[in-house]
Amino acid sequence: MKHFFKLTCAAAVLTAGIITLSSFNKAKKATTNVDAYSIQLISNSTDESRGTGTYEWTWVLTNPNPGNGEDGTLQNVSHFSIALNAVAEAALVSAEYSFDGITWVSVPIELERDPSIRECTRVDVLKFDAGTVGDQPTYYRATFDQEFSANPYATSWIKSGARFGCNRYFFTGVGASSNN
Q1: Strands laid side by side in the 38-46 sheet
Q2: What is the pTM of this model?
Q3: What residues have CB less than 8 Å from 116, skipping those under 6 apart?
Q4: What is each CA distance from 18 to 7, 25, 172, 174, in whole angstroms?
Q5: Hey, what domains does the chain have and what are their CATH numbers?
Q6: How many other C-beta atoms can be found within 10 angstroms of the C-beta atom of residue 171?
């Protein structure tokens, strides 16, 4: 019985060691510091001058250390996705991106689950299918038909190359409706 107990203990220790080592082995996918990419709200304004009564939110996303993902560099972002509350989803009029902040490309207003970031989230998102190239900024704009407060802890996901995958990111985004 003593021999069986020692054998069982040795097997348990060996199994625990294998599980521990295999969990380190699975960590080949590098993780980034969530503050590595920079996402900033650069404008939150009303468009009353044109009589449209819309409210534009504009963000800029930059990669401050572009590279292949090795030695502290960051891979280019392939796309940027944001979660909106139900009131903001209903008030969304348009979404666009720009590589120069002047010429804008419309994005379909489809708030749905993004299968390319399914390992990060299962919530519906507004996906901007445009990322970064090197250290050049990419601009994102969402226009709403009502005013919202700023939420400094809004949730977004940045999808980059195979080394980093997707990362949850908090940024200043759309908060509660100002009509309430």
Answers
A1: 38-46, 55-62, 138-144, 92-98, 105-106
A2: 0.76
A3: 78, 79, 159, 166
A4: 16, 10, 43, 46
A5: 35-177 (2.60.40.10)
A6: 21
* Burial class, 146, CB count within 10 angstroms (exposed 0-12 / middle 13-18 / buried 19+): middle
Which residues are registered as beta bridge partners of 100? none
User: Coil, helix or strand for 17?
Assistant: helix
Residue 74 pLDDT greater than 50, yes or no:
yes
Residue 98 has pLDDT above 60, yes or no: yes
**Residues whose CB is less than 8 angstroms from the CB of residue 68 and which lie 6 or more positions away in sequence, other chains included:** 75, 161, 163
Mean pLDDT of the region 72-93: 92
What local confidence, expressed as pLDDT, does residue 51 receive? 57
Question: Which residues 6+ apart lie within 8 Å of 67 measured at CB?
Answer: 73, 74, 75
pLDDT digits (tens, 9 = 90+) for 124-180: 889 999 989 999 999 999 999 999 999 999 999 888 877 777 788 899 999 988 775
Total count of residues recorded for the chain: 180
